[in-house]
Design brief:
single chain, about 120 residues, mainly alpha, 1 helix
Length: about 120
């Protein structure tokens, strides 16, 4: 029996040693996976932060481009408006001058008709 007990004791000690070794291996794997996960999460956070910075910078530059575009459009429209106003004013002046010439021509024609009627009546 002593031999069997010693044999079972050796088997038990081997099993305990195997369990301890397995626990160490599991603990090592868990530690490795935890470190890997922490590194992965840190890298993902850095990538998100970088993407966010990039989007923020892009948005800022897009706002500047749009503001510049609006400014240029307003300047162009202002120039076109000024040109239209100038053209309208020139056309108004030309029409007024034309109307004045027409009135003068009618007045001159009326005076000539009156002179002709006086001569015929004499």
């Amino acid at each position: 029996y002593d031999l069997k007990i010693n044999h079972f004791k050796l088997q038990f000690d081997d099993a305990v040693d195997g369990i301890a070794e397995s626990r160490k291996e599991v603990q090592l794997k868990l530690t490795t996976q935890e470190r890997s996960m922490i590194t992965k999460l840190q890298n993902e956070r850095k990538a998100r932060e970088q993407a966010e910075r990039h989007l923020t910078e892009s948005l800022g530059s897009e706002e500047k481009v749009r503001a510049k575009g609006i400014q240029l459009l307003e300047e162009d429209l202002s120039g076109i408006e000024d040109a239209f106003k100038s053209s309208i004013n020139e056309e108004r002046q030309a029409r007024i001058a034309g109307d004045e010439k027409l009135v003068q021509a009618i007045a001159h024609y009326t005076a000539a008709l009156q002179d002709a009627i006086r001569k015929v009546a004499e």
